[in-house]
Amino acid sequence: MNSINPSVSFKIICVLLLVFCIAAKTYAYRQEPTVSLDVHDVSIEKVLKLIKRQTGVAFTYQPEIFKNAPLVTIKVKKTPLEEVLKTLFSKGGYLFRINDKSVLVRSGNNSPGDKNQRTTKDTLYAVTGMVVNDNNEPLAGVTVSVKGGNRYAITADDGTFTLTKLGLNTQLVANCLNCERTEASVGGAPAITIVVKPTVAQLEDIKLNPVTGYQKIPKERATGSFVLLSQEDVNRASSTDILSRISNITSGMLTSTVDGATRLTTGPNTQGLGYSIRGVSTLSPVEVNTNPLIILDNFPYEGDMRNINPNDVESITVLKDAAAASIWGTKSGNGVVVITTKKGAFNQKLQLELNASTTIKGKPKLKEAKGYINTEDYIELEKDLFDKGYFNDDIANTTTFPALSPVVEILAKKRSGQITAAAADEAINAYKKNDVRNDWLKYVYQKAINQQYAVNLRGGTKDVRYTFSVGHDRNRDNLVRDGYRRTTFNVTNIFTPLKNLEVTLAANYSMSKYLLNNDIGYGDISSKSAKTPLLYPYAQLADANGNAMAVVKDYRQVYVDSISQLGFMDATYRPLNDLKLADNITNRNDLLLRAAVKYNVAKFLQLELQYQREEQISTTRNEMSEDAYSTRYYVNLFSQYNRSSGTFIYNFPKGAILENARYKWLIQNGRGQINYNQRFNDHSITAILGAEIKESAFSGARVAYLGYNDVTGTFAQNVNYNSYYNTNPSGSNTISNVYSGNSNGGYVLNRFISYYTNIGYNYKSKYDLTVSGRRDGTNLFGVKTNNKITPLWSAGLGWTISNESFYKESWLPYLRGRFTYGYNGNIYNAGSAYTTGFYSTDPTTQVPIISIIALGNPQLKWEKVRNVNLALDFRTKNEILTGTIEAYIKKGENLVEVYLQQPPQVGNAGKVYRNTGSTVTHGMEVKLTSLNIQHINFHWSSTLLLNLMKDKILSYNTPPGAINVMTDNGNLLYVVGKPLFGLLSYKWAGLDPQTGDPQGILKGQVSKDYTGIVNNYNIDSVVYSGSGVPSIYGSFRNDFNYKGISLSFNITYKFGYVFRRPAVSINEQDALYNNYSSAYYSSRWKKPGDEKNTVIPSLLYNSNDNGYRNAFFQYSEALITKGDHIRLQDIRVGYTFNTGSTMKAFKKMEVYSYLYNVGILWRANKFNIDPDSMDMPQALSVSFGVRASL
């Protein structure tokens, strides 16, 4: 990165700051609207119309108050609005309140209109009023009712309402969601203002504005595609991590996680969070981070997502298109999630928030697992394979003694005459009664219990605002002895030591502990036997008294017994004992420090410097006891036994094995920024200009200590990992080839530098223009790329049609159109301008060697994503229906492909990365919110999210191989003109009526030439089955409120996609290896005529087709199934106590219950498969909690 000098860059920024300081002092303007008038003897109402024409400010009043007002004469030039109104109303004794773009005017005690407004307690009259929040912002949709009566009005868009036939002492009550119930007395005034205070939710649904991480943008002036989520939205769910709380309520976001829980991340560039925004725009999902960029309080967050406590979150903004996200440049191609944590406010009384909840999740539904073969079918398979000689070689093998299941051992003893047929049948029948799933559910699995506790304090004085929070989570996982602990501390102080100077100091600290002791769950226990590598379903983990029992694992029981008699360590495997002995803990500490200085040069100009340092340290301590099976296995494997003396030499030391791993990530960010916000007459300009630098460093290693003694802390010295030793029961090997406890994580240092700007212009509150640009540089690419300005920019237009003079649609008071165009980008982490490799030592020659990872490409550059977005926002009268409709196009350009054809001089040296691929994604998003019923005590609203998305590969120059359909599992097999996640399959021609063999198509003819079909990549053999990603998805949420009771449920849906049912082997000898499914076994073809009722072929033994018959069926279109389904995702019930009389200490208290994964309402497949989890249905989780504020 020689072409980029950070020192020079910041000198340039300092010069720019100085220039803007001078300009600010010279050209300071006031942001308040100014008025110029020169009128003589006109009515007040006419003057107000002239002011509205110049400023756009609307006036609310009763016409009667100016009925007897004298004519006025006023002459002012570019005078602030407030001064003009004081001059205009002072003589008449009128009172007024300015609320941003509206002014409420009412008569005072001495105003002329007051003479006709005098009332007695028996007089009935009309009142016009306005409801505002504590920031003087008008509130729409507030119910204002007559206390003790049934008459009410709902405030309009400008917060105004009118009620008639009111008495002198009438009390009005204002009610709305997320605000405190407020009473106000009419008191004889014809116009009143009611100020309501927010509840804990802080009225985000009303005043929330998009936050990009660099600036806040008023909602009504944003041109980009945003999703705004309030604290109330975040708190609707109760999971430990933040992303799962917003996954099914965010337009454009698709969730691919099984149970909604964010997967564990261990540092920067970690893949697979399980969430995507408007699809994926890369052809390299392994090398390119496909996760959305996470921004936490203005800076990218690259730690474990579970370090972020959802109870600390104030709001979330999801940036989806280029105008919204391109300010983040080459990191924003997959969208941006901006998280803003809670902050105190100046002059705010101390506010204390408490939250406690417990979530209980049921055990996994093992009995409903689709990929499981039951005991009876499994034993029948074993008996049939035994009769065909499948196990003969293993039975006769006295060299490696491969493991044999108990039933096979019985059959072998019966054949050799060691036991009678009757005894064998009796023993086998006894095994048929066993089902290991019962033991798993009893001893290995448990109900998961997650507990959350959080305390948040915030407030402020005149010069200081502060926040302090602490949270603790204690999670017990479904697997016994697995769990998660998290404690978080957050402190933020914002203070003004000098006039116009604001300083922010913040610290976030998270301590997490992961207990990872259980590795004996469903599908986890394996064997080194090639013929029976999985645990047999009739295994017993414990006897009737709960004592751990042995199961066959790596060797035949005869070998296990023989070495035990010689004095070797016990070679039996008792899974439940290993579970008790396991001691595997990962601790993760994340410390994030932030500092910022903001100086107000003028009302319209700010200078800002920010710095963030994030350090994450992950340490793992995994102690495998001397009595653990894995330790005993390694000791026995390398032990040298002297038969004459009966002594041992332990080349693999006896004692425990201690594995210590330590990984560290250090990320530092610095930013200098100029903020400009100027309003004059009909014009408004908002702009930022800045530069930032970032450094990301990673280091780590894992070290193993053999022969470890936990009491003394000692371990074996001088262990020779690379010498060859004789191994038991036969052969020779090195310790390093068998046990890989040591590894060097290396050191990685990446640096970035960026320059950026964003400008927004508004004219007459009707027209908006936004422009942004960014240049990024990094040490990842070549000099040529760094010397070029990266064309990552965006432009947007906004038109508030409803503010035009010609617009007369009163039923639709708000209508706005938006259009944006621009570029985002992706960072490719694997490639480089230089040839890359890693050093190691040849285990045979002990000579240092270097292994090539990838050949250098000086032309390698950013992946770019071109975005086009067209949107329409609307709101009907009284907000009965509000909505947004958006259409977008995303085109991925310069996408990196991996080429395997290396130049001859380097031989088979690795990969070559080139920017030659491209993709396109078309989509539409619809969000509709309706107020179905809005009564004094009852509210019902509905929100529909509808997403339509289709993607396609435009160019991909790496041709697929002949057997890619098989090796790629039908996924990520890129074909031009097809979706990125399209599934390709072999054409299906049914089953052979005589043999039950699967049939395909080869050269246009029905064929059973499986070798020819699999190795023939032609359109006549392969068919496109459909997209593996839903093309239509969304949710439909309903929220009900009756007095203090709330009910909410969310229904999600996914349509327009397919999946491949779990594949199984149809070669009989592979059935045990693949854990054959009973559903397939019972429905397989057995006799002619079965082909009319099944697609499962006949089982063949010892097929001579190199596995191609099996591969053809597993990846044929016979197993393609529609994934469409509708799910009742969650239900939330809550009760908010009336804290006015009985619970005066509380501002608000709510108890709630939350149910997640309630169940599937409808599915297109007839196999009772949950398309989101495939193997078994998801378990229901139930949460109970209380949330209160003091």
Task: Provide an overview of this structure.
By secondary structure, the chain is mostly beta strands. Among the domains are: 34-195, Phage tail protein beta-alpha-beta fold, CATH 3.55.50.30; 375-434 and 519-581, no CATH class. The protein has 22 helices and 53 strands. The radius of gyration is 36 Å and the shape is elongated. Belongs to the TonB-dependent receptor family. It is found in: Cell outer membrane. This is TonB-linked outer membrane protein, SusC/RagA family.
The level-1 CATH class of the domain at 34-195? Alpha Beta
Distance, first to last CA: 54 Å
Helix-and-strand structural type: mainly beta
Beta-strand level of the residues, as a percent range?
35-45%
How many extended strands?
53
> What's the architecture of the domain at 34-195 in CATH terms?
3-Layer(bab) Sandwich
Membrane topology: Multi-pass membrane protein
Family: Belongs to the TonB-dependent receptor family.
Domain TonB-dependent receptor plug: 221-336
GO cellular component, one term: cell outer membrane
Task: Give the secondary structure arrangement, pairings included.
Layout: H1 6-26, E1 34-42, H2 44-55, E2 58-60, E3 72-80, H3 81-90, E4 95-99, E5 102-106, E6 125-132, E7 143-146, E8 152-154, E9 160-166, E10 171-175, E11 182-185, E12 191-195, H4 204-207, E13 226-229, H5 231-235, H6 243-246, E14 253-255, E15 275-277, E16 293-296, E17 299-300, E18 313-319, H7 322-325, E19 336-341, E20 351-361, H8 375-387, H9 392-396, H10 406-416, H11 421-432, H12 436-444, E21 448-460, E22 464-476, E23 482-498, E24 501-516, H13 557-566, H14 575-581, E25 583-602, E26 605-624, H15 629-638, E27 639-642, E28 647-650, E29 656-680, E30 683-708, E31 724-726, E32 732-734, H16 735-738, E33 743-763, E34 767-778, H17 783-787, E35 792-800, E36 814-826, E37 836-841, E38 848-855, E39 863-875, E40 881-899, E41 911-934, E42 938-955, H18 964-967, E43 982-986, E44 1000-1002, E45 1005-1007, H19 1010-1014, E46 1022-1027, E47 1032-1042, E48 1045-1055, E49 1058-1060, H20 1068-1071, H21 1078-1083, H22 1108-1114, E50 1120-1122, E51 1125-1136, E52 1148-1163, E53 1181-1189
Parallel strand pairs: 2-5, 6-12, 16-19, 38-41
Antiparallel strand pairs: 1-3, 4-5, 6-9, 7-8, 7-10, 10-11, 13-18, 14-15, 16-17, 18-19, 20-21, 20-53, 21-22, 22-23, 23-24, 24-25, 25-26, 26-29, 27-28, 29-30, 30-33, 31-32, 33-34, 34-35, 35-36, 36-39, 37-38, 39-40, 40-41, 41-42, 42-47, 43-46, 44-45, 47-48, 48-51, 49-50, 51-52, 52-53
